[in-house]
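Researcher: We're reviewing a set of sequences before deciding which ones to prioritize for further study. For each one, I'd like a predicted 3D structure that I can look through quickly. This is Hydrogenase expression protein HupH. If possible, include the structure in token form so it fits the rest of the review sheet.
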Amino acid sequence: MKKVMVIVPFPMGEDDIARRQAQMKAVDLGPGVAFHYRSVRVGPKNYSSQHDMALADFSILDAGLDAEKEGFDAVCIDTMSDSGMSMLRSVLIIPVIAPGRHSMLLAQMLGDKFSILMMWDRWKMLYTKTLGELGMEHKCASMRSIGVTPDNMSLLSGKEDEVFPLLLGAAKKCVEEDGAQVLILGSTTMHEAHSWLSARIGVPVINPGPLTYKLASIALDLNLTHSKATWLTPLTPKHDMIRAIGAAGAAYLEGNQ
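Model: Here's the predicted structure for Hydrogenase expression protein HupH, in token form for your review sheet.
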């Protein structure tokens, strides 16, 4: 049995993690792989500024640093920001899959132009960064926000009647006004809207979290991983220092709740 670690990008308890695990219902992965969810022990309140992104990169690096030693065969990162992906690819040999870039690359397999649906405008910087790294700015027809502050814990639960119609309205504008042929949900926290939205819009809608699970499974089946010629192994690893900073941050949070 292959083991995949799914890194949840915020410290949270079992009930909140369960809402993340519900993404598994959207994809058939077969019996040969097991997914284990782990929340970070430190991190920002939300991914809404460059300050937050620095903390996000570190928190995910800290969470997945010892994945290989712990017997995991791959890592999935549960945030469209792709935070920590490059850092973990630098220190791990096993596949590390993040949803942002892979959703955009899949969109190019399904159509020419894609749009990104997002909860609020503060997330735009996440996608702009990845689009620039991939050289795909010209393939993004639009990024449309519904102007709703995201809830990283309860996700969309209890807000379906408010949020789903807003997403459909934005999706229609992406297709009819912006020329999008594929839509990407802008966050794994939006997964609860995927099937509802897909049934009501005439183009493919990419659900980024389940996509990473399937890609991790495929990478393991094909014995593929990232290139160490791109993500270089550090000459002087500082794993103990990273663990110590993570432990200190977790102790700080515990004492200031």
